[in-house]
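Quick one:
INPUT:
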């Protein structure tokens, strides 16, 4: 039976895409055995917004080629990021631990494992690991060539 671009194979429990060639390099090639084992992909949105955590509108940089930067922020208990702003929009998800971010007169917010956030861009803030274990945050910066992802401040 035809479903969107693929064909659902009820025996395998997968959607097959006959128009897509499977001529990727060996590490990325999908075997028939893998297709037979793997369930259908499930997509779970974590965050969908047009504003940051402190209500700033999200605006992408212009004038230079786009550049995505994916990072892991890791802080030991008690460590801080230092006061900073960002030159570009960014989103993050806490992978482990707990982090409190101080947004100055806009208050503090606590983020725990699984929390997703569109972080402040031009509002100064400082992240502190307020937990008892290391915190790890996956961060995706949506910037442009030549623009900094973070701008340290003196506070």
């Amino acid at each position: 039976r035809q479903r969107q671009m693929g064909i659902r194979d009820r025996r395998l429990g997968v959607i097959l895409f006959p128009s897509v060639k499977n001529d990727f390099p060996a590490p990325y090639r999908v075997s028939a055995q893998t297709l037979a084992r793997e369930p259908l992909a499930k997509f779970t949105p974590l965050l969908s917004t047009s504003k940051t955590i402190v209500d700033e509108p999200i605006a992408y940089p212009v004038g230079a080629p786009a550049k995505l930067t994916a990072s892991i922020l890791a802080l030991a208990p008690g460590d801080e990021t230092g006061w900073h702003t960002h030159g570009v929009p960014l989103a993050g998800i806490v992978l482990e631990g707990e982090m409190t971010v101080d947004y100055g007169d806009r208050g503090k917010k606590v983020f725990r494992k699984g929390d997703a956030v569109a972080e402040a861009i031009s509002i100064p803030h400082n992240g502190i690991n307020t937990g008892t274990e290391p915190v790890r945050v996956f961060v995706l910066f949506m910037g442009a060539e030549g623009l900094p992802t973070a701008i340290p401040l003196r506070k």
